[in-house]
């Protein structure tokens, strides 16, 4: 199968999952003496869950694009592994709604936070398997950073375990994981540009350099 077909299908799943998240943001029910402003503030769990989940999907999409751009072709096994990853991405709106609802309801927050973490951990594992298998088809092979790879696999499960003891800390860790993997590839890309400049090369990255930097930029279980 051509890479373009697999990438187009994947982009469609990412887009639908990200779009469905917005349906968790509902018009607050304004009753009694509480005004709209107060009602909107009380909906903060929905906003927090939306931010974390949407940002996570964006991070996955960016790194997924980097991997596909760095490989020469797909085989049947890689297509199914890609489908497994997309399965975990498509289900993200469900635990997002659970988390937002029960945080606001004031009960069963632990169960909701654990379910959210389990889904994200499954996504991280699926991405790691996809990435490891895809490495055999890289046009330009780069070393696997086992420290970064292990970190990517461990952060979501660690946050999930934390939810059993402290939901607030677990939510903080969920947000940290996303922010960390937004900052990491940006930092590495700038280092690549600085190294190229120091070696007397133009500051502008070539397409191959950009693809390599992006693919190595770190993700929720890639060769970070």
What do these coordinates show?
- With 224 residues, the protein is an all-alpha fold.
- The protein has one domain: I/LWEQ domain, CATH 1.20.1410.
- Helix content is 73%, strand content 0%.
- The chain contains nine helices and no strands.
- Helix 1 runs antiparallel to helix 3 and helix 3 packs across helix 9.
- It starts with a helix and ends in a 9-residue tail after the last helix.
- About 7% of the residues have low confidence.
Quick synopsis:
Helix content is 73%, strand content 0%.
Q: How is the topology of this model organized?
A:
Elements: H1 3-20, H2 36-41, H3 44-70, H4 76-90, H5 93-105, H6 109-134, H7 146-163, H8 167-198, H9 207-215
Helix pairs in contact: 1-3, 1-4, 3-5, 3-8, 3-9, 4-6, 5-6, 6-7, 6-8, 7-8, 8-9
What are the salient characteristics of this protein?
elongated, 9 helices, I/LWEQ domain, single chain, mainly alpha, 224 residues
Helix-and-strand structural type: mainly alpha
The best one-word shape is elongated
As for the CATH topology, it is I/LWEQ domain
Let me know the average pLDDT: 80
Total strand segments: 0
Report Rg: 19 Å
**CATH class placement:** Mainly Alpha
Strand content: under 5%
State the CATH architecture.
Answer: Up-down Bundle
Sheet of most strands: none
H-E order = HHHHHHHHH
How many domains, as an integer?
1
